[in-house]
Structure formats: C-alpha cells, structure tokens
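Consortium newsletter contribution from the modelling node. Members have asked for a concrete example of what our holo predictions look like. Here is one, prepared for the guanosine-5'-diphosphate complex that several groups have been discussing at recent meetings.
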Amino acid sequence: SLSIGIVGLPNVGKSTLFNALTKNTALAANYPFATIEPNVGIVAVPDPRLDELAKLYDSAKIVHATMQFVDIAGIVKGASEGQGLGNQFLANIRETDAICQVIRVFEDSDVTHVDGDVAPPRDIETINTELILADLQTLEKALPRLEKEARTTKDRDKLAVVEAARAAQKTLNDGVTLYASDLDPAPLRELHLLTAKPFLYVFNVDEDELGDEALRARLQELVAPAEAIFLDAKIESELIELPDEEALELLQSTGQEEPGLLQLVRVGFATLGLQTFLTAGPKEARAWTIRKGASAPEAAGVIHTDFQKGFIKAEIVSYEDLVAEGSVAAARAAGKARMEGKEYVMQDGDVVEFRFNV
Ligand code: GDP
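And here is the predicted structure:
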C-alpha cells in the first residue's frame, strides 16, 4: 500500500504523533506484518459508512482501507550534505509516496529546539531547503546521462525529459519545491525527486492554540497549496489512552470536534491521490482502495484480477442513496441503481457489485 513519510526537525513531536497513530485502536490495523519494522505503521482509514453498511447487511465483519505511515529519522540542516543521518534520511524519504512535514509551534522550555527557538517559517524553510538541495544533486548527477541519451537516440521523449530536468533545476534554484510549482512531474518520474511528491503539513500547536483561527490562517498560507492539519500531539497521545467517555470530554475541552489523528489519516489518504469504493454483504462490509480517477474495471481488479479481465459491468448505488432507500433492491426500484460499463470513472463512496465472465 502507499505510504506517507513523517518528516521534521528533531523534537517537533514526530514520534509522539507516529506512536499515537499506531497505538490508536480505532486506527491501528491489526496486521501481523505491522510490527516487522518499528518505524512503519499500517493505519486503518476511518470510515463511519462501513458501520452503517454492516448494520444494513448484517455483515460479520468490517474491513477498512489502510495506508502506511513511516517515521523518518530527524532531518537537520545540512542533511543533503550528509549531516546527521543525511543520506539514510533521503533514501528513506525517497521510498515514500507523500511527505508529511511536522512543524513545531508548541512552546515548551523542557524540550529543546535544534535551532534555538520556535519559528515555524524558518523550520519550513530549513526542511524545504534540504529537500531542494537533494533534488538539485539528483538532477545534476542525472543530467549528463539524460543529455547523452537524448543526443544519441534523438528520441522526442528523451529530449522532453532533458528539458523538464532543466526547468526543474531552475525552479529549485529559485527556492521553489516542484510540488508547489506548476511543472508537470510526469517526465521526471524515474528520478523520484523528493520535492515532486505531494506534501502535507502537521502543525503541532499548544492546546490553547487549537482554536486560534488567525494563527491557523497564517500558517496555512505559508504552506499553500499543501493542506495543513493543526493538532496537539501530546493531547493526541493522551486521547488514545483514555476510555471513550473521558476522551470525548478531553476532546470537547480543547474545542475540537474530532481527534487530529483522524483528520491526518483522512487528509493523508486524499493527499496520496486515493479514494475508496465500498462493497457489502453478509460476509463483510469493506472499503477498497483505488486512485482517484480509476475506471470501473480497474476497481474490479483491486478485488481480483479475474474481475478485471472478465469485466462486463458494474451495478452502482451511491452510499447516500443506498442508506436512504434501505437496500439495493429498494434503490433499484427507485431508479437509484445504475449499470455502468468499462468507461465509468469511480466516485468515492460508490457501493458496487461487479458483473464479470469467469
Ligand atoms: P521527534 O524528535 O520529532 O520525534 O519528537 P518527539 O515526539 O520525540 O517529542 C520530543 C519531545 O517533545 C518529547 O518530550 C515530547 O513529549 C514532547 N512533545 C511532543 N509533542 C508535544 C506537544 O504537542 N506539546 C508539548 N508540550 N510537548 C510535546
């Protein structure tokens, strides 16, 4: 499954956040391989629709979509030159599909800041600079080879790659990440550039700052177009230890409607470019992961390759219509069930039954 790397300076709350994600019983998917690597956690994507479907179908179990979070050791200034865990850090981050930057906003004199004081804009800049420098190194190393390939083959695609590489160099030299630029990432995909991955930000704020809208707006503006989540990692780690009722009280006392962890998983899933479709029956109510824009046959293929190969059509009811009508049969009678063919682009929350040849 796709993964999000949790990245940030030391002492910003990365491990606190990661541990809360993987210990949260609502999120921690119970996979035997979840513990193989201590810094990789498999997390269930919360989806209240599954509970409703399970009730409707009297399903024996619920299966959530999952995603991975990877706790990546602290980046420091100079990482791209091998400082700290420099190269290891970059290799780990290269393997992830999106980058979640944790930025410290909380003040705590007991927790030292590597660069002396708490300054979110500077820290965002520090991390982005290291990622940008790493990408510039990658490009510098790759360009002679790419140019030679283009020269010897005169292949149009290869020429386009060289042009894209030069444009990327220019953008990065201006201090702009590729994610935030409008360059097409496709031609440079094979280089696995770090700043071309989708970004998302977690601002680890003090409890009393959780409701500070002006602060939120200011921080969000710093990182646009990336999404930002505001949470207090310490509160999050307390919430997961509490019985439900007490957790709810604590949550309400901080003025939040839901734990920041849930928001993080939901936004993270979308940042990875993913969505889910649903299936339900007596055996299970289940969310299946597909990329946004996936066609009906691709979705069928996630369940079984034979479903994709033999795809005929899909009977689709939106989750809302299904719940409103009470059953697929009632939805059919009300004209809310649709037969869709090979070209159909799946929508989040489609409840699906595939028809296929075996
Ligand atoms: P990492 O180095 O980024 O992984 O940071 P840790 O998660 O290990 O946290 C470093 C220290 O900061 C620990 O002592 C945490 O208890 C503390 N910490 C983490 N999040 C918060 C927070 O939201 N508020 C406060 N006051 N302390 C925090």
